[in-house]
Amino acid sequence: MKAMKIFQIHHQDEKNGSTEFIAQNEIENEEQMSAWTKDVTERNPLPEGKIWLICNEKSRHFIMTNIYPEPIDPPRPIGGIKEGA
Question: Which of 7, 16, 45, 55 has the maximum number of C-beta atoms within 10 A of its C-beta?
Answer without folding.
Answer: 7
